[in-house]
Write a structure and sequence with these properties.
Length: 461
C-alpha cells in the first residue's frame, strides 16, 4: 500500500520552509480539476496530541502551505490552508486550496495592446500578478493569437484567472482547444517551491496513462444528448478600428472608414484606446466616423489622446448583433444563446462554431475508479496513483474498453481515449476516480455552468 505523508510549511510563495511533519493521516482526499488549473482542494484529517495542540492548530495555521508527498517520488501536491476544522475527539481536518485560488489575489486593470500574443501576455501576467507561479515558463506554448482581442473590464478589472480562461477560449488560429494548469515543482523534502505553469493546445498532448478493466473497481459509460444544442447563437457587441485623424485632447474619436451609426454605437458605450491603454465613454455619435467622448475624454494610459493610427475598440452596452452556427445531422433542433458584448463578429462566429461542435452531437460521458496499486504510463512504467495528480493529469486510455476495437498504445480514439478533466484521490483507500472528457471535446469555462464538467469532492469514510 502506498503511504503518503503530510507536512506544514511556511506561508512563503517562493521557498516555504517545512515547519512540521503532520501526524499520521487518518483520512484525506485530493480534488484535481483542469478548470481549476490543477489541484483544487486537499483535505487531510490528523490526530491532535491534546486539547492545547488542537487549539493551536485551529487558530494559528490558516494561510500556511500544506503538502502531501511520497518520500520515494519527487513531486509533492500542495496548497494553502484555508480552513481548519474540529473533526471529532482530538482530530483536526485541514482544508487547502490549490494554485487557482492564488490566481485571484490581485485585479488586473491594464489594457492589452496589439502585437502581443496570448502566450506572451500570459507570461507577463503571471510574472506581475501571480506570486505562486514560477518564472519557468518554458511550457507555455506559442498561440499565434493576438491578446488584444480580450480587454479587461473597466473600471473593475479582471482577476488573472478570468483572463486565463478568456485566453483558453480564444484558442488559436486553427481553433484548437487550449488548457492551462499548474504542478508543484520537485522538492527535496524540506522546502516547497512555486508552481510550474503549463499552457498547451490539447491537440499537441500525447497519450500518457494506460489502464485496463481489471484495474478498475467501477466503470460508468453513457452516450448522452441531454445537453444537445444543435443551433448556437452568440450575441456580440464590440467594434474595432484605427484612428485616421489625431486628437490630442482625447475628446474626439475620428475614423474615416468606420460606420459607428451602422454598428449602432450609442451614448454610454465604452471606448478603449488599446495602443496607449486609455479609456472613455461615448457622449454623442456625430457621424459614421466621428464620436465625442464624455467629459475630459480619455483617461489613464500613457498619453490619454488619440494619435494617428492608434487602434481602438468600442464595446456596446447592449449586444444587439449575433453570429450563429448549426450542427449537421443533429437528431433534434435545440437552441442555445449566450451574450458576450466584448466579442467582435469573427470571435463570436468562431465561438459559436466551437460550441456547436461540442454540443451538436451525443457526448460520451464516463467515470471510472482505478483501484490497482499502480498505474502504467504509456511506456509501461509503473507509477503510484497519486502521481497522476502530481504530474498534472493528461490523456488516459482504457486499452481493453471495447473488445472489438483493436488498439495500440499510440492510437487515440474518442471512444477509449480521454483527456482527464477532473480527479478525486482517496488517500486512505488509495483509489483514483477519473472524470474524463473525450479527446476531441472542447473544454470551456461555460461547460461547468451547464453541469457537464462540474464535480463534487468524492465521498470518503
Amino acid at each position: 500500500m502506498t503511504v503518503l505523508y503530510a507536512a506544514r510549511f511556511e506561508n512563503n510563495d517562493t521557498n516555504a520552509a517545512q515547519l512540521e511533519n503532520l501526524p499520521d493521516i487518518e483520512a484525506g482526499g485530493i480534488r484535481w480539476n483542469l478548470e481549476r488549473f490543477g489541484v483544487d482542494t486537499i483535505e487531510v484529517t490528523v490526530k491532535a496530541r491534546n486539547r492545547d495542540d488542537m487549539f493551536i492548530r485551529l487558530n494559528n495555521h490558516q494561510g500556511q502551505r500544506l503538502a502531501v508527498f511520497d518520500p520515494f517520488w519527487f513531486r509533492p501536491i500542495s496548497g494553502n490552508i484555508v480552513d481548519v476544522q474540529e473533526a471529532g475527539a482530538r482530530r483536526v481536518k485541514y482544508v487547502c486550496r490549490g494554485p487557482a485560488w492564488r490566481h485571484d489575489d490581485l485585479l488586473v486593470r491594464t489594457t492589452f495592446p496589439t502585437g502581443q500574443d496570448t502566450d506572451e501576455r500570459l507570461k507577463s501576467l503571471l510574472s506581475t500578478y501571480v506570486d505562486v507561479v514560477s518564472s519557468d515558463v518554458g511550457d507555455i506554448d506559442a498561440t499565434g493569437k493576438d491578446a488584444a482581442e480580450f480587454q479587461t473590464e473597466w473600471p473593475r478589472g479582471n482577476y488573472p484567472s478570468e483572463i486565463i480562461n478568456a485566453y483558453r477560449n480564444m484558442s488559436d488560429g486553427s481553433q484548437n482547444s487550449w488548457d492551462y494548469w499548474c504542478v508543484d515543482e520537485p522538492f527535496d523534502g524540506t522546502a516547497l517551491k512555486q508552481y510550474k505553469p503549463y499552457f498547451r493546445a490539447r491537440s499537441s498532448r500525447a497519450l500518457r496513462w494506460v489502464v485496463q478493466r481489471s484495474d478498475l473497481s467501477s466503470l460508468q459509460l453513457n452516450r448522452s444528448i441531454s445537453e444537445l444544442k444543435s443551433y448556437v447563437r452568440v450575441w456580440y457587441g464590440s467594434f474595432e478600428g484605427t484612428v485616421t485623424t489625431a486628437n490630442a485632447a482625447g475628446t474626439t474619436l475620428i475614423d474615416a472608414v468606420a460606420n459607428f451609426t451602422g454598428f449602432g454605437v450609442e451614448p454610454g458605450d465604452r471606448i478603449t484606446n488599446i495602443t496607449d491603454g486609455s479609456r472613455g465613454k461615448v457622449k454623442t455619435v456625430n457621424s459614421g466616423g466621428n464620436i465625442t467622448l464624455v467629459g475630459d475624454g480619455l483617461v489613464g494610459g500613457s498619453d490619454a489622446q488619440f494619435d494617428l493610427n492608434d487602434e481602438y475598440t468600442i464595446e456596446r452596452l447592449d449586444a444587439w448583433y449575433s453570429a450563429a452556427s448549426t450542427a449537421a445531422d443533429a437528431p433534434l433542433t435545440r437552441h442555445y444563446e449566450i451574450n458576450d458584448s466584448r466579442m467582435r463578429y469573427e470571435q463570436a462566429q468562431s465561438y459559436a462554431d466551437i460550441l456547436t461542435d461540442f454540443y451538436g452531437s451525443a457526448i460520451q460521458q464516463q467515470r471510472f475508479t482505478v483501484a490497482s496499486r499502480y498505474i502504467r504510463s504509456v511506456n509501461g512504467a509503473r507509477w503510484p496513483l497519486h502521481q497522476v495528480i502530481a504530474q498534472g493529469g493528461g490523456i488516459i486510455q482504457i486499452s481493453d474498453l471495447y473488445p472489438t476495437v483493436g488498439l495500440n498504445f499510440d492510437g487515440l480514439d474518442s471512444q477509449t481515449t480521454f483527456l482527464i478533466t477532473a480527479m478525486d484521490y482517496d488517500l486512505t483507500r488509495n483509489t483514483l476516480t477519473v472524470y474524463p472528457d473525450s479527446i476531441d471535446g472542447r473544454l470551456d469555462a461555460r461547460l461547468r455552468a451547464v453541469g457537464i464538467l462540474g464535480r463534487e469532492m468524492v465521498g470518503r469514510t
